[in-house]
Amino acid sequence: MVLSFWATWCSYCREEMPVIELLYREYEGKIEFAAINLTHLDSVDSVKDYVKKEELRLPVYFDHDGEVTGQFRVISTPTVVLLDPQGKEVYRKVGAGGKDSEDEFRHQLDQLLADTEGG
Predict the structure, then answer these.
(1) Residue among 14, 34, 26 at smallest CA distance from 83
(2) Domain regions of the chain by residue span
(3) CATH topology of domain 2-116
(4) For the chain, which has fewer Cβ within 10 Å, the N-terminal or C-terminal residue?
């Protein structure tokens, strides 16, 4: 599972979200994705407007009270966390990456699939 922690006011998040969306579409049905908005520091209306404007299909969740953000020790946006099928964190990227992160993320996702499929 890919957890992407983000906020609409974060310029680096806005750079990276198209990459996350692209990978979601590419790996849909193989790996679950969740874009978790730091709603306790953002607004629902801003998120809805952004999702509509960018035509995002990936699931977007609102972390109204910061509980999930705290659970995953997110201290900066964007933060991308990759979990294996048992829920163990196997990868974390904190901070800006934008388009340059695409190859790195794809490599990590392919590795997770290979490990999960036993090959």
Answers:
(1) 34
(2) 2-116
(3) Glutaredoxin (3.40.30)
(4) C
Q: Which residue has the tokens 């990936």?
A: 58
Cα–Cα distance measured from residue 100 to residue 12, given in angstroms and rounded to the nearest whole number: 12
DSSP classification of residue 94: E
Distance CA 2, CA 65 (A): 21
Cα–Cα distance for residue pair 119/102, rounded to 1 Å: 23
- Report how far residue 68's alpha carbon sits from residue 50's, in angstroms, rounded to the nearest whole number: 21
Q: Which helix (H) or strand (E) holds 52?
A: helix 44-54
Tens of pLDDT, residues 66-89: 999 999 999 999 999 999 999 999
What is the pTM assigned to this prediction? 0.92
Residue 39, pLDDT above cutoff 70: yes
**The CA-based dihedral angle spanning residues 15, 17, 20, 22, taken in that order and rounded to the nearest 10 degrees:** -80
Q: Evaluate whether 77 touches 38 at the Cβ level (below 8 Å).
A: yes
